[in-house]
Each structure stands twice: as structure tokens, then as C-alpha cells.
Design goal:
This protein has about 90 residues and is of the alpha+beta class. Helices cover about 30% and strands about 10% of the residues.
Length: about 90
């Protein structure tokens, strides 16, 4: 999800994760664009996948947030630091 409002942020993150063999199901905007940093949200109690993504994206911003509608295991919300996380050139 694009959480920073920078055009193409979610698409760049999705391409990076797909290159790492992750199954990206959906690319969209977050409800707001005020996320100060890229974060990983585990949607399931087993946070091993979320922690693996945290290592790949070099972030410790990994949280567990469960809702009644559990369609995905993990959600990645891009912050303005997404290029640093994916190695993208500015």
C-alpha cells in the first residue's frame, strides 16, 4: 500500500517483492499518506513472514494487526523511505 503519497511507491515496492519471489496480491493506496516510514503489518498470529520481510526491507517496523477480514498474511505500507528499503535509485 502506498502510505506516503509518492507516485508509484506501492508499484515499486510490489515489483521489488515480486523479484524476491513474494506473491503480491494487491497494490493500492493506504487510507492516508502520513506514514513516516515503511512498515510491515502481519495479519496472522505467526509473524515469521512479516519478520522475514522486515529483514529483506531492513526495517524493524513490524507489527501485528488482526481484523475480522483476514484476506492476506502481510501488508506492506510504504513510507517516504521506500527507496532506501528497496535499493531504488532516486
Amino acid at each position: 500500500m502506498n502510505g506516503c503519497g509518492i507516485s508509484g511507491a506501492a508499484e515499486q515496492m510490489a515489483a521489488f517483492l515480486r523479484d524476491k519471489n513474494f506473491d503480491v496480491k494487491k497494490v493500492e493506496n493506504a487510507q492516508s499518506w502520513n506514514y513516516p516510514a515503511t512498515m510491515i503489518v502481519s495479519r496472522i498470529e505467526d509473524m515469521s513472514l512479516a519478520r522475514e520481510l522486515g529483514k529483506i526491507l531492513k526495517t524493524d517496523k513490524v507489527v501485528l494487526v488482526r481484523t475480522a477480514e483476514q484476506l492476506y498474511d502481510v501488508t506492506v505500507v510504504t513510507g517516504p523511505d521506500f527507496r532506501d528499503r528497496t535499493g531504488e535509485k532516486r
